Structure formats: structure tokens, C-alpha cells
């Protein structure tokens, strides 16, 4: 067990980023309570999540890789196709402390407590106190003040396939719209949509709709919160609450995971160096929050830009995007070149928890990680295992 640090964090939101923070804090000896407004923690709302190598590596460092692999599947291919269905590009490509996770808890307000720390109030009247709140409550965070594209993600060995239909509905910068089930049905029943072929499968959107097990519709907002991601010493945001990107290249969660790593490193190192004075710890957290944002911002801005460009590219937002998408992208080798020259160097800069030691680096590839995972002292580790009979 790690030594316990003298701070406690109230995590608002039990989405994937909040839950990852909970795992990280339990590994680092940081006390926490997680408040999630839904009644169940893992609600299946229908969309898939693609984890990239730097995201999977974080899961491995938290000891969650085997569980993840047992419920996930390797992504074998992605297909982009024209509006007529012609495919023009295929790409290949510790038990968490459950008693600290509280569902059916909608956080309504957060206030400071005299002498330092915060108090979080929930809709059901309950309240929680801690050193600071970690806002992981997504795009509508309480913590913060006609072209159509089809994407199919598939694993040929699995029965599960994901179809994404993107449509540019609103001009950029328009306020977010809430969609309902009848909005989905209205879109699917449109003849120009329902008759759309799914690659070379012989199926149409209408067939996929008939065979579906889940469906959903969501506006794809984008933005990076400015000027800060923290409010004094008492609140800091991670994941979609701090930055929201369109999902076309599957980066949103991967970005949130890196936030958690960076923030956990900064907070645990600050608390470790601040000594035993509670006042000094609570009064200096904003420095750790600021360093977290400074470490993440450049990479977040790049991911934000890449996601936005690819979404506009696939929706043919402008003629130059259409030209690039239809003419340049299908050239054999362009996708591989982009992976090697753009994606790999970005992923190689993936962060790791400096306070969580592992037996070995879980993955090594052709492009080397910039930051190595901290390894267990082998002799001490063997002794420890012998003592515990492992
Ligand atoms: C269609 C689609 C496909 C995507 N595919 C990918 C992908 O392949 N790869 C990838 O990396 N990303 C992907 N993303 C993005 C990814 O889903 C998000 O980036 C990720 O879910 C963000 O996690 P989060 O925990 O920050 O926020 P959320 O997932 O939004 O979770 C926020 C949580 O906070 C809770 N909450 C909100 N308000 C309160 C409150 N007041 N009190 C208590 N709880 C509250 C909510 O109920 C929710 O559980 C996709 C997104 C979409 C829409």
C-alpha cells in the first residue's frame, strides 16, 4: 500500500476520466470520494471508445489492461466511404475502492470552507468535504462557470461493428442542441440516409438500423476552456470539462487520461514536498494545478486542432478539405505516412504516473517512448513477493 497523503479529493463525475482519476488516487495513496449523478456507474450509452497506445499504456500502469482486454476488442480496420458507399480509404490499424464511489449523486454546488478545503452539496441534500474538487463532469460541467460522412469501425473476428454518421448540421460556434430519440428516427428515415450503402458489405444504413443493438445521437461540441482550468486552490478540471474535441480520430478520452496522469503527478509531488503543514498544502495547490495545465496545454491544443481538421475533412466543410479527403488520402501509403509522421511522435510523448512503479514497461514499439515508466526495484520487489507468499 502507498503511504497515505494528507489530502482528500472530491471527484465530481464518474465518467471514464473521473474513474481513472479514482484508480490513480487509490494507487497513489490520495483519499477521495467520487460522486456520480447516474444510478449506475457504467451505463452503456452505445458508442465505442478507441484507446490509442499512450492511453492503453496508462491503463496498463494502473493494472487494468487485462480487464480491459477481456471486455474490449482489437480495432482491426476503419473504413471511410463516399456518400454513395464507395470505400475509398481503409485503415489498419487494484480493485478500485468501490465504497468511495457514490452513484445517484448530482452535485449542485461547491463552496469553500473556512480554514481551507471545500464542501460539495448534492441534489439529495447530502454533502461531502475535501481538500479540493476534481471536476470530471464532462462538457456541461457544473464546475465551470450538409454534408454527411459515414465511418465504420470493425473487427472482422467480432460480431460487433460500430457505424458513425456525422452530419454538419449547425454553423460553427452555434449553441449546443439537445437531441432526442425522435431526432434519430427522423434522420434515419430520410431516404438519402437510409439507402446509403455500408462500404462493400451489401448492407445499407437501413439494414444496420434494423440490426442495431444500441443507438445514440449527440452534438459534437468543441472548445478549450480559457483562461484557466482551475479556480484557486479548490477546484480543477480534467477531461471533457476542460476541453472537448470532436470524436472522429478518437482522442477525447485519451486526452482526459493524460490530464489525470499530469495532475496526479503534480499534486502528489507538491503534497510530498510541502511537509506536514495543512495550511501550506491547501494554500499551495493552485501552483500544482497551474503546472498541470502548463504541461498539458500544448498537446491539448494540437489534439484539438487535429480532431477538428479531420472532422471538417470528413464532412467536406470546405472544397480544400474535400479535395484532400478524396484525392490525397486514398493515395496508397498516405495513411501510413500520417501515422508515422504525425500520430506516432505525438503518442510517443505520452505521460506516465511517476509515483506508480511497475515490473516492466508494458509496450515497446518502433517509436520509443520519451518518458519511461518507473520500474520496481527488482530485489526489493522479489523480497516483498516472497514475504507475501506471492
Ligand atoms: C460518439 C463518440 C465517440 C467517441 N469515441 C472516442 C474514442 O474512440 N476515443 C476517445 O478517446 N474518445 C472518444 N470520445 C470522447 C470521449 O467519450 C470523451 O472524451 C470522454 O467520455 C470524456 O470523459 P469524461 O469523464 O471527461 O466526461 P463524461 O464521459 O462526459 O463523464 C462525465 C460524468 O459526469 C457525470 N456528471 C455530470 N454532471 C454531474 C453532476 N452535477 N454531479 C455528478 N455527476 C455529474 C455524468 O453523468 C458523467 O458520468 C467519443 C465521444 C463520442 C460522443
TrEMBL record:
<keyword id="KW-0274">FAD</keyword>
<feature type="domain" description="FAD-binding">
    <location>
        <begin position="228"/>
        <end position="276"/>
    </location>
</feature>
<dbReference type="InterPro" id="IPR036188">
    <property type="entry name" value="FAD/NAD-bd_sf"/>
</dbReference>
<keyword id="KW-0560">Oxidoreductase</keyword>
<feature type="domain" description="FAD-binding">
    <location>
        <begin position="7"/>
        <end position="87"/>
    </location>
</feature>
<comment type="similarity">
    <text>Belongs to the paxM FAD-dependent monooxygenase family.</text>
</comment>
<protein>
    <recommendedName>
        <fullName>FAD-binding domain-containing protein</fullName>
    </recommendedName>
</protein>
<keyword id="KW-0285">Flavoprotein</keyword>
<dbReference type="InterPro" id="IPR050562">
    <property type="entry name" value="FAD_mOase_fung"/>
</dbReference>
<dbReference type="InterPro" id="IPR002938">
    <property type="entry name" value="FAD-bd"/>
</dbReference>
<dbReference type="Pfam" id="PF01494">
    <property type="entry name" value="FAD_binding_3"/>
</dbReference>
Amino acid at each position: 500500500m502507498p503511504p497515505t497523503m494528507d489530502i482528500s479529493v472530491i471527484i465530481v463525475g464518474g465518467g471514464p476520466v473521473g474513474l481513472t482519476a479514482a484508480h490513480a488516487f487509490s494507487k497513489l495513496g490520495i483519499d477521495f470520494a467520487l460522486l456520480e449523478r447516474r444510478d449506475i456507474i457504467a451505463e452503456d450509452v452505445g458508442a465505442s471508445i478507441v484507446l490509442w497506445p499512450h492511453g492503453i499504456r496508462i491503463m496498463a500502469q494502473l493494472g487494468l489492461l487485462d480487464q480491459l482486454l477481456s471486455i474490449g476488442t482489437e480495432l482491426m480496420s476503419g473504413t471511410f466511404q463516399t456518400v454513395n458507399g464507395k470505400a475509398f480509404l481503409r485503415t489498419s490499424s487494484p480493485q478500485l475502492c468501490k465504497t468511495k464511489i457514490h452513484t445517484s449523486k448530482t452535485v449542485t454546488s461547491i463552496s469553500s470552507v473556512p480554514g481551507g478545503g471545500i464542501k460539495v452539496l448534492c441534489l439529495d441534500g447530502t454533502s461531502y468535504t475535501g481538500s479540493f474538487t476534481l471536476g470530471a463532469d464532462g462538457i456541461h460541467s457544473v464546475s465551470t462557470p450538409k454534408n454527411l460522412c459515414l465511418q465504420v469501425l470493425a473487427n472482422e473476428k467480432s460480431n460487433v461493428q460500430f457505424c458513425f454518421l456525422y452530419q454538419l448540421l449547425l454553423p460553427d460556434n452555434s449553441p449546443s442542441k439537445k437531441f432526442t430519440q425522435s431526432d434519430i428516427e427522423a434522420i434515419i428515415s430520410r431516404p438519402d440516409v437510409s439507402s446509403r450503402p455500408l462500404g462493400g458489405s451489401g448492407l445499407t444504413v437501413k439494414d444496420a438500423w434494423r440490426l442495431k443493438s444500441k443507438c445514440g445521437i449527440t452534438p459534437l461540441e468543441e472548445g478549450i476552456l480559457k483562461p484557466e482550468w482551475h479556480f484557486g486552490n479548490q477546484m480543477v478540471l480534467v477531461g471533457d470539462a476542460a476541453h472537448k474535441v470532436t470524436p472522429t480520430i478518437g482522442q477525447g478520452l485519451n486526452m482526459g487520461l493524460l490530464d489525470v496522469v499530469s495532475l496526479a503527478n503534480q499534486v502528489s509531488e507538491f503534497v510530498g514536498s510541502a511537509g506536514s503543514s495543512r495550511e501550506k498544502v491547501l494554500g499551495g495547490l493552485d501552483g500544482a494545478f497551474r503546472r498541470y495545465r502548463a504541461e498539458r496545454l500544448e498537446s491539448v491544443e494540437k489534439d484539438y486542432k487535429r480532431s477538428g481538421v479531420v472532422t471538417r475533412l470528413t464532412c467536406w466543410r470546405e472544397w480544400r478539405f474535400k479535395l484532400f479527403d478524396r484525392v490525397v488520402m486514398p493515395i496508397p501509403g498516405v495513411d501510413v505516412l500520417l501515422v508515422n509522421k504525425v500520430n506516432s511522435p505525438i503518442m510517443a510523448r505520452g505521460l506516465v504516473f511517476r509515483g506508480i512503479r511497475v515490473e516492466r514497461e508494458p509496450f515497446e514499439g518502433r517509436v520509443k517512448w520519451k518518458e519511461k515508466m518507473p520500474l520496481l526495484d527488482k530485489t526489493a520487489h522479489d523480497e516483498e513477493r516472497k514475504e507475501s507468499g506471492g
